[in-house]
Amino acid sequence: MIIRDILNKNKSGVAIGLPSFCSSNMFVIDAALDYVLQKDVPIVIEATCNQINQFGGYTGILPKDFSKKVRSIATEKGIEHSKLILGGDHLGPNPWKHLSASKAMKNAQVMVKDYVQAGFTKIHLDASMACKGENTPSFEEVARRTSELCMVAEKYAPDLDSICYVIGTEVPIPGGETETIDTLQVTSPDRLDRTIETHIQAFKEKNLQAALSRIVSVVVQPGVDFSHTAVTQYSKSSAKKLVDQLSKYKDIAFEAHSTDYQQTTGLANLVADHHLFLKVGPELTFALREALFLLAKIEDELFKDKASNLIQVVFKTMDNNPKDWINYYHGSIDEQQFLKHYSYSDRIRYYWDHPDVNSAINKMINNLDNVDIPEFVISQFFGIATNEQNNETARSLIKSRIQYVVDRYYNACGFDR
């Protein structure tokens, strides 16, 4: 099992881990899969509970359909089945926390069942959120609910030997903080102990001793996050007490969320400090947005009034459908427009699959496919030395921009050695 082998190496002191690419965007998935085929490395692709669930999530995609689509692309590219690991992130009551705990947990159990039956094998069980009318659940209650979700996974997983669990939830807000970051509180040794020990006890009470051996990591807050305009970089010294405390647990490593935009050296330090998984999402679609908008500028130069007007289309779509950014971007109209375009939180990523935007993307790519883009124009917008590039296309430029992010994560995780 790839994850277990890497875990054992990491815990023995080898600075190796796994990037975990959390995106349902097909440009991102295609670029990442091409990279792993070229480099012959394993890949983790994750879906979140809000993104994909039995009701479709905000993407409208079911777990089985996402799994089928990603595996189909991987098969077409010739990627070994064993190299592709699908993960489910924050699987629990979060999408239904507006309901009572009993109703939310019933939905969560169905979601876990659907994920494992669809072939997802890296399962993050997260029952930490308060549901309707509740106060924040205690460590014990979170662990009890997590054990209930684990029972479902254990019952319905087609191959339990391939399953691994992630527990814990001390993470930044999904997609980054909504405002500025002042001070991040690194998970304390005591909170680490209470998270792990209450889960061990709850699993034993449900006769889930075998499942305990499948727990490979615990989510912590190591002191990394990003806001719309700033990134808090990892500090080894600030996380030292937390890292030292992990030595109590022989077969468990950390999982770091919201590692987007960390310096590559910081990512490598996280891996050296036993963060088995480095989760990244918005940085991948941030790179996609950069590439698409640069191509739109090239298209404007080459096609003038016949261009797709992609940039105008996407901002018009965001204004007409503001629910995915309006509660996040504040300030004047100009300030909101600036954040919609450039922010690290990358709320624009929710609009790439909108029919109007998707149509504009396809028109732009088709336009550019019908011409040989001059190398000196590519160099102007993408900053690429023209004597090192040949026959670049719109899709290859998109792919290379995304793969820059993919590559630095694999390098940080020890795959350059």
Overview of this structure, please?
It is a single chain. This protein is α/β, with parallel strands linked by helices and 417 residues long. The protein folds into two domains: 2-280, TIM Barrel (Alpha-Beta Barrel); 285-402, putative tagatose 6-phosphate kinase domain like (GI Alpha 1, domain 2-like, Orthogonal Bundle), CATH 1.10.400. 47% of the residues lie in helices and 11% in strands. It has an eight-stranded parallel barrel with strand order 1-2-3-4-5-6-9-10, surrounded by nine helices. Strand 3 (84-91), helix 4 (101-117) and strand 4 form a beta-alpha-beta unit. The protein is globular and about 70 Å long.
- The end-to-end span amounts to 21 Å
Strand content: 5-15%
CATH topology of the largest domain: TIM Barrel
Q: What is the total domain count? A: 2
**Rg, alpha carbons:** 22 Å
Mean pLDDT value: 95
Number of helices: 15
Largest sheet: 8 strands, parallel, barrel
| Largest sheet: spatial strand order | 1-2-3-4-5-6-9-10
**Structural class designation:** alpha/beta
Fraction of residues in helices?
40-55%
The CATH class designation of the largest domain is: Alpha Beta
| 3D shape | globular
Describe the structure concisely for a colleague.
The protein is of the alpha/beta class. Helices cover 47% and strands 11% of the residues.
